[in-house]
Amino acid sequence: xxxxxxxxxxxxxxxxxxxxxxxxxxxxxxxxxxxxxxxxxxxxxxxxxxxxxxxxxxxxxxxxxxxxxxxxxxxxxxxxxxxxxxxxxxxxxxxxxxxxxxxxxxxxxxxxxxxxxxxxxxxxxxxxxxxxxxxxxxxxxxxxxxxxxxxxxxxxxxxxxxxxxxxxxxxxxxxxxxxxxxxxxxxxxxxxxxxxxxxxxxxxxxxxxxxxxxxxxxxxxxxxxxxxxxxxxxxxxxxxxxxxxxxxxxxxxxxxxxxxxxxxxxxxxxxxxxxxxxxxxxxxxxxxxxxxxxxxxxxxxxxxxxxxxxxxxxxxxxxxxxxxxxxxxxxxxxxxxxxxxxxxxxxxxxxxxxxxxxxxx
Length: 361
What we know:
The protein is built from eleven helices and 18 strands. The protein is of the alpha/beta class. The chain is globular. The relative contact order is 0.15.
C-alpha cells in the first residue's frame, strides 16, 4: 500500500519551505522505495526553491541522500531490500548515443521513477533532480540507487550523491588532474573543497584555493590546499601566476558559477591548460571573452556535469577511499539537522557558515 510520510516541499517561488504529508506509491516496474537516512542541503535545492531551475512547483526538495532500500518493483535485480545505497541523478540508460559510445557518464536519457509522489490532495510533486529526498522515504528509479559499504555514515555517504562528487569529479574526471600538476580552485564551498581534495588525492603538488572569505580559506587547507588567495585583497590571476612560476595553473576549477570568476579562471590557467566550470550559473549570466585569447591560449574549456561521474564506478571507489582514511567525507558535514530546519539551513548557506547541513531522519 502507498505510504504517507513527512517531507519538505517548496510550494511557490521564493516561499519558505514547508514540512507536509506526502504520499509515496509502492514501487512499480524498475522502481525502488528507499528509506532515507540522511540528505545534505545543497545550493541546488535553494535554486529550486527560488525558481532558478524551472517553474514546475511544488517541488519535493533534497537529493544528496543515502538510505536503505525498502522495496523494489518488478524487474529490479541490481538492488534489493536491505541494501545501503547512495541516491544519484544519473541512472544511465545504456542505449543513448553517449552510452553507445562508451561514455555513460554523459548519458543523455537518464531514468527517473515513472510514478509521481503527491500531496494528500493528489497534487503531483516535482522531485529535485528526479530524487526528492527531504522525506522519510522516497520513490526513485532503481538505477538511481548505488549500493555501497555501510561502514560509511549515511550523513557523509549521501554527500557523494551531488556536491562532493561534483567537485571531486570536476578535478579528477573532467579536469584530468595528474601527479605533479598545479591546480587552482575558485570558490571554497562544499564543491570547491571536494575539488581541492580530489586534486590533492590525484597527486597535484600545488593546489591553490581562492575565495573572498578567510574562514573558507582556512578550511580549504584542511582539504589539501597548499596555498590560499583572498581575491578581495589581491588580484587572483596574478597571484596564481606568481605561485606557479609565472605561468598559471595546469587546471583551474571554477566552483562559483559567475562571469567574473569564470574570467579569472580563464586567465589564471597556463597555456594549453584546462578550465573546468562546475559552479552553476543562473540563466541570465553571460561571459564575454576575446576570441583571439581563446584561440591563442589553447587548451580546453570544459563544463563538468555531475563531475562527469559514473555512480556505479565512482561512489564505491570513493567510499573505499573513505574507509582507508584517504578521503575525509566526514569533514564536509558541518551540522546535522531535522526536517523542519531546512529553511534555516538555507540562511546559513547564504551566510557562508556551513559546508553542508545534513538532514538526518
